[in-house]
Amino acid sequence: MDDKTQLILNFINESSSNMPYVLKDKLIRDGKELKYRFEFEEIKNSIDEFIEGNELNRFIVLPGIRGVGKTTLLYQAYYYLLNEKHILPDQIIYLSCDDLNNIVDCNIREIVDIYLNNQFNTQLRLLDKEIFLLIDESQYDKNWSMSGKIIYDRSEKIFMVFTGSSALNLEYNADAARRMFKRVVTPLNYNEHLKLKYDYSNINLGNSLVSLILNGEEQNAIKYENEMNRDLINNIKYNFNDWDEYLKYGGFPILARKINFRRLSTNIVDMIEKVVNTDMVAIKNFTFENQTNSNRILRYLALQNAGDLSQNNLAKYLKTSQANVKNILDILEKTHLIFSIEAYGTLSKRMKKTKKYYFATSSIRNALSENSGNTINDIKQYGGILLENHVASILFNFTQRGNDCFTLYYDANKKRNVDFILQRDFKNPVPIEVGRGRKDKKQITHAINSYGADYGIIISDTTTNIEKHNNIIYVPPKTFSFL
């Protein structure tokens, strides 16, 4: 046995022997199990189907921004396999490619081959027992997607879950893409936040908000909003500043257990720096200079009004080319730190108009603003900017969660423009206006008439509950965050 093989086997064996202690440390808080993100149900159902003989969804890929709970999902899957499905420990392989990469170059396929040969004296094509492969930080194997494809093709006995930072989106094999089930792990909406923090969930409100957006049907949303408000009033653990805290610091599970907000912001900034200095550095030709440019672009965005960005001005500010700025922005999008939306209109109009950029969560914008020296002194104005970013991210994540028939745009009209336009296939668009405090209806009425919309939505504190007046639906920000 050569040294590399021995190092890999030692790493796997140590990981396996330590797992009971790791699970206890990572999944138990104050004597109670951590709550599940909703994605865990998808993993659990796929595991159950695989054990029952359905091999369809046996290659699951879960990319997502750092800190949203992907590693915890793997630990919970391991716990479920071990304690509820009674799978033997030697049939479960958990690996962090990040940790292994500190010892040897991480090659997932090679690791599986070595393990099967030494543990079961077999190989992929001859495997006769079920193996569960849980791989974290998969991006440290630059050929992770090809490794997954080969394992998938050579054995129907292996169930795989690959997680990792959004660098997973930067490069993957087209053939592998046809075999994998990819589910982006998005930042937490408010319903998911409440589930983790207070063990409270109102999935019906989220579903009814979908109907409200799709069809302008508000009755069920009103019903479940009343139920939600009543439940939270009667929940003695619920902090009535919780939604405001979520707007500034939320989207990540860590808020469910930390109340030191300064430390939370520091954690978010640290996460951003790791994405730039680790994930983006792994990309070919990404220089140290562009690491610096990336950090400056993110802070520049955080100090602008929501969505405002001139690539020409940014190139002059950074003393680099517009092409380089565009390249950096494209890569930042692939890491899921930011996202962009195009102008509503014809293809020609969308190509001529600049994109608008938003942060993945309002908490990222807030953390960078605090870290860089927020130049906006008006609390109401700053709250409005955070809210616009928050609504943009909620809508964008909605379009990413299997709702790809929707496209989110911004309104490029110069007069009385609304913030967003949501388009579903060839149906009439839905204009959406956002604001902190009370909002009048001039902008939304103008957009409804201009775009031939059946109705429009105002997300603001104009009303304390969902209300519909003629063809305008008013939705409070906290309620909308359940989408």
From TrEMBL:
Gene3D superfamilies: P-loop containing nucleotide triphosphate hydrolases (3.40.50.300), Winged helix-like DNA-binding domain superfamily/Winged helix DNA-binding domain (1.10.10.10). It holds the Pfam family DUF4143. It comes from the Archaea. Residues 289-435 form the DUF4143 domain. Residues 57-193 form the AAA domain. InterPro entries: AAA_14, DUF4143, P-loop_NTPase, WH-like_DNA-bd_sf, WH_DNA-bd_sf. Coiled coil: none annotated. This is AAA domain-containing protein.
